[in-house]
Structures are given as C-alpha cells and as structure tokens.
C-alpha cells in the first residue's frame, strides 16, 4: 500500500485513493447493488471491467481498509467482499456525485436506490447506512 502522497492536500489524497473510474464503480456495485463476489462484480457490471483491473481495485480497496475480503461460508472457493465503516462512510459522497451528475449531465438519470435515497432525505440515508452496517460489519449483524 502506498503511504506517501503527492501532496498534503486532503482532496489530492482522497483522489489518490478513489480517483479512478473503476474504484468508484466497484464501490457503487457493492453499496447499491450488493454485489459482493468477484464473479458478480466482473460479469454484472454495466461498464464491463476487465478481470485484472477488478482484481487490482479490490486488492487496493482492501489495503485501504475500505472493504474486507473473507471466505464465503457458503462456498469454500469463493471470497466475499464487505464494506468497512470507512467504506460505508463513502455513501454520502456517492450520493452527492449522483446528485451532481443528475443536475449537470443532461443524459444522466437518477434511478433506483440513489433516487429513493435523495428523495428520502437524511433520515433515510442514515437508515440505509445502518442497514449496510448490519449486512457488512460482523459486530453489527
């Protein structure tokens, strides 16, 4: 894991962790679509991520403490990816990105869960994040 940064700027450091397309889309799929296995993330992504890129991004997200990787109790050859509290804390950022895109990108559509969470306000977003904690964090479930 990289410990040095190009600068001390917090925006730069955040971009170094989250700043590529695939990282954010992997997080999106784990958060909003509950894709938690490698195969699901690989084959069900609308954007068609390559397997080597996906493996690299998952590894980096684990190294950064945004997700964890553990053995799937239902299948000994599968791993399951879970959000950490650090990963769950990205939900408001993802929702703001979705709202910005809906506002300023004419072809984008705010759909499904993102739309529901935007319209539901802070209480519904907090409830959603608590549900993620129950599903992803061992001590919360």
Please explain how this structure is put together.
The longest helix is centred in the C-terminal third of the chain and has 25 residues, at about 110-135. The mean pLDDT is about 85. This protein has one domain (about 10-135): Arc Repressor Mutant, subunit A, CATH 1.10.10. It is built from seven helices and two strands; from the N terminus they run H-H-H-H-E-E-H-H-H. By secondary structure, the protein is mainly α. It has helices spanning about 10-20, 20-35, 40-45, 50-65, 85-90, 90-105, 110-135; strands at about 65-70, 80-85. A two-stranded antiparallel ribbon has the order 1-2. It holds the Pfam family HxlR. Keywords: DNA-binding, Transcription, Transcription regulation. This is Transcriptional regulator. GO terms for molecular function: DNA binding.
Strand order of the largest sheet: 1-2
Specify the CATH architecture. Orthogonal Bundle
* CATH fold group: Arc Repressor Mutant, subunit A
Rg result: 15 Å
Oligomer, anyone? single chain
* CATH level 4 superfamily: Winged helix-like DNA-binding domain superfamily/Winged helix DNA-binding domain
Q: What's the helix-strand series?
A: HHHHEEHHH
Q: So how many helices?
A: 7
Approximate strand percentage: 5-15%
- Tell me about the biggest sheet? 2 strands, antiparallel
| Nearest-integer average pLDDT | 87
Highest CATH level, the class: Mainly Alpha
Q: What portion of residues is helical?
A: 55-70%
Number of strands: 2
* Unreliable residue stretches: none
Count of the domains: 1
Pairing-aware structural class of the strands and helices?
mainly alpha
- Tell me, briefly, the overall form: globular
Tell me the span between the first and last alpha carbons.
Answer: 29 Å
